[in-house]
UniProtKB/TrEMBL annotation:
A cellular component annotation (GO) from this entry: cytoplasm
Enzyme's top EC category: ligase
Aminoacyl-transfer RNA synthetases class-II family profile domain span: 1-363
Natural source organism: Nitratireductor aestuarii
Binding site for L-histidine: D87, L88, T89, R117, Q131, D135, R284, Y288, Y289
Record HAMAP family: His_tRNA_synth (MF_00127)
Family under the similarity heading: Belongs to the class-II aminoacyl-tRNA synthetase family.
Protein name: Histidine--tRNA ligase
Subunit and partners: Homodimer.
PANTHER family: HISTIDINE--TRNA LIGASE, HISTIDYL-TRNA SYNTHETASE
Location relative to the cell: Cytoplasm
Main location: cytoplasm
GO BP annotation list: histidyl-tRNA aminoacylation
Catalytic activity: tRNA(His) + L-histidine + ATP = L-histidyl-tRNA(His) + AMP + diphosphate + H(+)
Length: 483
């Protein structure tokens, strides 16, 4: 009874997921293609740690409804607060500031990795997810922002998204600031309410105009019964914000001029064919954006996890954050960047049938028929010879008998197994069992004539011919897959 009471329950924390081989390999393929585009644009890799000092990350997260404001934090033994990074941009700002004198300016870098949000988990909302960012630090002109938009378009096409099935939407926080000042939310004293308004606008694609109207006003009650407090604007102010979202009309200011310049630069490079568009509804939820902001949106209607046909929406975004590096340096340092939501984009590509992974052959299993040290050494030598020939292979390391070993090889998806018992060893031979052909024979062949004409599922070869025999089995299986 005591042993049962001390048993730990195996359970995955909420908002986290385990990753399986297929997804890991699919992401690896995606990252290679994204990295290729980033490097084509002249960006260089850099890597920062998962943990930073809390004050270095800053308090820029949206939806700060957790006790430690959206981040996972803990105290070091010297009583300094540390946090898991919530994005890849804030750590980059720290890295650039710390290494500013030795870095080329502008500094162009890319990085990918896990980020963490201490948020309430929900459908499609995870506490750990992967991002892949590219940033330019030290470029004051909007040509750097225009380049980010063009590069994101090239990334999506490199991943197989057809032109016309996506759009890079662009807006400017300076334009939005003009709208907010027009409704009386200028000044530092209204910073909190301004951010609430921006977050409400950012929910347009999720909740529609009526949902945004509620979030700009008293608040919104969702289907689960959770209430989100609104910005508390009056009807006139709400009407002005919604009018801007629908028409994009506002008096000329610096933000409007910057958008015109981005539009002209993208047109000059040939990206004015629907790939990059000005859109007044783009906001971005993070507080540190100071100028142009952009989002990559998939336009194709594809099945979601429940099989419903939906418009997938945003798979990445970014913008200009001229104040982030300046927090450390005390001087203006312009910067702009783009972040791809890797897990979300992978889901979209999978649902679109665009996720191509390199097929990884399961290992050939060398079965263990005798367990004395001399026999184990012979089996290990076979495995080593297979590996030296470039064939994935493993020696069975469990303690079970032949039947269980065959079941293990089937479960691993092994193409074939190598068997050498006492009789085979005495004759200097090994048995090769083609598991794929064996399965086909058992399922499809019903008469003796077809059986005799089929490829043998199990055969003997001289031990010195094992490598070539296994290669023939693998080649035949590959040919069958292409047929």
């Amino acid at each position: 009874m005591a042993e049962k009471a001390n048993k730990v329950k195996a359970r995955l924390p909420r908002g986290l997921v385990d990753r399986h081989p297929e997804d890991i390999r699919a992401v690896d393929e995606m990252l290679v293609k994204i990295r290729r585009v980033y490097e084509l644009y002249g960006f260089e890799p850099v890597e920062t740690p998962l943990i930073e000092y809390t004050d270095a990350l800053g308090k820029f997260l949206p939806d700060q409804d957790r006790p430690n404001e959206g981040v996972f934090s803990f105290q070091d033994d010297d009583e300094q607060w540390l946090s898991l990074r919530y994005d890849l941009t804030a750590p980059l700002a720290r890295y650039v500031a710390e290494n500013y004198e030795r870095l080329p300016k502008p500094y162009r870098s890319y990085r990918n990795g896990w980020v963490f949000r201490n948020e309430k988990p929900g459908p499609g909302r995870f506490r750990q997810f992967m991002q892949f960012d590219a940033d330019t630090v030290g470029a004051p002109h909007v040509s750097a922002d225009a380049e980010m938009c063009m590069m994101m378009a090239d990334v999506l096409e490199a991943l197989g998204i057809a032109r016309g099935d996506y759009v890079i939407r662009v807006n400017n926080r300076k334009v939005l600031d003009g709208v907010l000042e027009a409704i009386g939310l200028g000044g530092d004293e209204n910073a909190g309410r301004r951010l609430t308004v921006l977050r409400a606008i950012d929910k347009l694609d999720k909740f529609g105009p009526e949902g945004v109207r509620l979030l700009l006003g008293k608040g919104r009650l969702d289907e689960s019964g959770d209430f989100t407090k609104g910005a508390g604007l009056d009807d006139e102010a709400i009407a002005k914000v919604l009018s801007y979202i629908e028409t994009g009309e506002i008096e000329d200011n610096e933000g409007v001029q910057e958008l015109r310049e981005i539009e002209a630069l993208c047109a000059a490079a040939g990206y004015d064919d629907g790939r990059v568009k000005i859109d007044p509804s783009v906001v971005r939820g993070l507080e540190y954006y100071t100028g142009p902001v952009f989002e990559a949106e998939l336009l194709a209607e594809i099945p979601n996890e429940d099989g419903q046909i939906v418009r997938f929406g945003s798979v990445g975004g970014g913008g200009r954050y001229d104040g982030l590096v300046s927090r450390f340096k005390g001087a203006p340092i312009p910067a702009t960047g783009f972040s791809i939501g890797v897990s979300r984009l992978m889901t979209a590509l999978k649902n679109l049938g665009k996720l191509q992974t390199v097929e990884t052959q399961a290992p050939v299993v060398v079965m263990v028929m005798d367990k004395d040290i001399e026999s184990l050494g012979r089996y290990q030598k076979m495995v080593s010879d297979l590996r030296q020939a470039g064939i994935r292979a493993e020696m069975y390391l469990g303690g079970a008998g032949m039947k269980a070993q065959m079941k293990y090889a089937d479960r691993r998806g092994s193409p074939c197994v190598v068997i050498q018992g006492g009789d085979e060893r005495a004759n200097g031979e090994v048995q090769i069992k083609d598991l794929v052909e064996g399965m086909r024979l058992s399922e499809e062949i019903t008469d003796n004539t077809t059986w005799r004409e089929a490829r043998p599922a199990q055969f003997s070869v001289a031990e010195g011919e094992m490598i070539e025999a296994v290669k023939r089995v693998l080649a035949a299986q590959a040919e069958d897959r292409l047929a």
